[in-house]
UniProtKB/TrEMBL annotation:
Residues 190-357 form the Glycosyl transferase family domain. Residues 15-183 form the Glycosyltransferase subfamily 4-like N-terminal domain. InterPro entries: Glyco_trans_1 (IPR001296), Glyco_trans_4-like_N (IPR028098), Glycosyltransferase_grp1 (IPR050194). Coiled coil: none annotated. It comes from the Bacteria. This is Glycosyltransferase.
Amino acid sequence: MNIGIFSDVYFPQKNGVSTAVKLYKEEMEKLGHNVYLFIPKYSKDYKRNEKNVFEFPAIKFLFEKEQRIALPISTDIFKIRDLNLDIIHSQDPFSMGIFAEFMSKLLKIKHVGTHHTMYEYYRNYLPLIIRPTLKQTQRVIKNWCLKLDKVISPTKNIKELLVSYGVPDEHIVVIPTGIDTEKFNKKIEWNIKEEYGILPEEKILLFVGRLGPEKNIDFLIKVFHKVSYEEKNVKLIIVGDGVERNKLEELVVELDMHDKVIFTGGQPRERVLDAYKQADLFIFASYTETQGLVVLESMAAGTPVVALGKMGVYDLLNHENAGGIMLKELNEDDFAHEIIRVLKDEKLYEKLSKNAIDFVKKNYSIEVSVNKILNVYKSLLNIDKKKNL
């Protein structure tokens, strides 16, 4: 098949959607498909060395500098018809998603979309004067989904939410974003303990993600403060960057934990994988995840998880033997108790670690996910063929 993937985010931007798009493209190409990626140009200075990627002029989003708003006015538009695309797959409802919808109508090609993000919880990035209400946001999501020929939801929980907005049940298929489990078998090259002067006997708690308010990282820092009273040989490493970084660093100083909490900033993908593999425990308290890709990646590395069980993360950790501890509410004492329990109980730790690896390989490998996506494409193409008979 000739597959067109349209996305407003892609590497070097570091987030779950970028990772998902790259994994989709690589796995589909392994299977012999031609995958063409349509994205905003990140910057004039960034040189991309990847085949079949079309970049469009873009401007920075005023309220979140890492985000781009594409202006699909490139001459590459005229090349799309010559690609003979069989299917279009968009990853968001913004500039490239709108462009994908336009091209699907123009070329009469089926359009699939993945609902990666809980946009309702990101309204705070817009100033009040242009910020939509919750109801307005839900209506926009519903209307966007109805324009698609099929909606892919990463979890059952998110599907139920979309149905509550008015999207028909049969219009949605649940396909989790997969993990490239093979990459977690590679030798560690980034030695975190050596770089940051962490002693061999000290344990590492890890958070990976964008430093935004919806991730509740301030809560995790306060939880870690409680943990450190009982567990002296432990450090918290925060991998990522974002609008909350200065505020979080100030909180660390206020709690007198500047020697125990390490901010690495954003890191290349290879280093992030190394971080998972060297951590003793992954901690996570976001309430906006459609799936929680970082949770899956940690589990793929054999690093147990203690996390808030909301939205997509609930669908992951709600399974028996998933390899993590799920908490229902944001309670500092409960989080701290579970973290300490896992760190102290060696048998429990080993069980969670083994279960985590097995769980991801069995249910969330990129091979399984991409095959399911390809089946969605094929079913839509078969419908078209039957109509033409």
